[in-house]
Automatic annotation (TrEMBL):
Gene name, Swiss-Prot/TrEMBL: splB
4Fe-4S found in the keyword field: no
InterPro entries in the record: rSAM (IPR007197), SPL (IPR049539), SPL_Clostridia (IPR034559), SPL_firmicutes (IPR023897)
Protein name: Spore photoproduct lyase
Gene3D superfamilies assigned to the protein according to its UniProt record, in alphabetical order: 3.40.50.12110, 3.80.30.30
Family annotation (Pfam families): SPL
Organism encoding this protein: Tepidibacter hydrothermalis
Entry's EC annotation: 4.1.99.14
One of the record's GO molecular function terms: lyase activity
The keyword Lyase is annotated on this UniProt entry: yes
Keywords: Lyase
Length: 335
């Protein structure tokens, strides 16, 4: 897919002190993106829906001065951010409920300072320390503006004890292919059936684009994994998840390293349901509580998941597909 071009960029004046800031501003200028220097982002839509859609086209170039990184269990020891929010419109994105009415994208330019903070956290520990960079953003979606993720991969390649985990739904991975990663960065692609991607993951890379991107990453010998999430039951779900696994198998036939899979069934909270119906009034998502069972979530909220017999069916069916077609694979969890 084409790289994201914002409708408007606000620029924190502090970014002019950083090389990446100047490069990003030049790039935005070349793209004819209107730029406004400001310490705050002003988005004034006539309705919450307009605020949401304008925000998803607005970026704020700024700096990330966080010194203490938050834990990120179970996926990694810590999380850090090169950006927040993302240009995608996935209807069930958990950021929908955490980033407020105006989820504009912050893009951080002070990469050397961010890497210094990571270094400090690595040094505190004598063992391997793992870092996730996709907890509040898609780290690949905005990479073309800064080149920061590439710098991170190169930083981790030289780190004795630091390891990076990347998760993405985007395919602009070419800048990561011919660089030294030293197997210290693991790429995970969030993947799903054509139906799910086409209907619910608006403004993200397509089914085929993600599979081809994963092949490119595999050809560059990165450690590789897939998150299949959310797994949704619909008319033709079994056939389509089978197609997904077989397409992956076909494209990854030359990749001999172990591949990990993480499986997450579709779930929603009442708050998420209300927000999805406001932002995507024509959604085809099945949000009928009567078709679900309640499960107590780790963040103190009930969520609606598939009833036990349905979730067992999903788990058994997809696990068998994976183990039958990827002998060298591990399913890290199903939830
Ligand atoms: S690509 Fe990821 S971060 Fe972006 S909207 Fe979709 S789920 Fe959310």
């Amino acid at each position: 897919m084409k790289n994201f071009i914002p409708d408007k960029a606000f620029i924190d004046p502090r970014v002019l002190n950083y090389d990446v800031g100047k490069i990003a501003i030049n790039h935005l200028t070349e793209l004819n993106v209107p730029i406004e220097k400001s310490r705050r982002v002003v988005i004034e839509g006539k309705s919450p829906l307009e605020n949401y859609s304008k925000s998803k086209k607005t970026i704020y170039l700024t700096v990330n001065k966080q010194k203490k990184l938050r834990p990120c269990k179970p996926s990694a020891d810590y999380q850090f951010s090169l950006s927040s929010s993302c240009p995608g419109h996935c209807e069930y994105c958990y950021l929908q409920t955490t980033q407020g009415e105006k989820p504009f994208m912050k893009v951080f330019v002070n990469i050397d300072e961010i890497l210094d903070v990571i270094s400090d956290h690595i040094d505190k520990n004598s063992d391997i320390t793992t870092f996730e960079c996709g907890s509040i953003t898609d780290p690949v979606a905005l990479e073309h503006l800064t080149g920061n993720l590439k710098k991170c991969i190169e930083f981790f390649s030289k780190s004795k004890n630091g390891r990076l985990r990347v998760i993405t739904k985007y395919n602009n991975v070419d800048s990561f292919l011919n660089i030294d990663h030293n197997n210290h960065t693991k790429f995970r692609f969030s993947i799903n059936t054509r139906y799910v991607i086409n209907n619910f993951e608006h403004s993200t890379s397509s089914f085929e684009e993600r599979i081809i991107a994963s092949k490119k990453i595999a050809s560059s010998n990165y450690p590789l994994g897939f998150i299949i999430a959310p797994i949704i039951i619909y008319d033709n779900w079994k056939e389509e998840y089978k197609e997904l696994i077989l397409r992956l198998k076909e494209e990854l036939k030359d990749y001999s390293e172990p591949i990990t899979f993480e499986l997450i069934q579709h779930r929603f909270t009442r708050t998420a349901k209300d927000l999805i119906l406001t932002r995507f009034p024509k959604t085809k998502l099945d949000l009928n509580e009567e078709n679900r069972q309640l499960k107590w979530g780790p963040y103190g909220k009930f969520k609606y998941v598939y009833p036990k017999e349905k979730s067992s069916e999903i788990k058994e069916y997809i696990s068998k597909l994976i183990y039958d077609n990827f002998k060298n694979s591990t399913i890290e969890y199903f939830t």
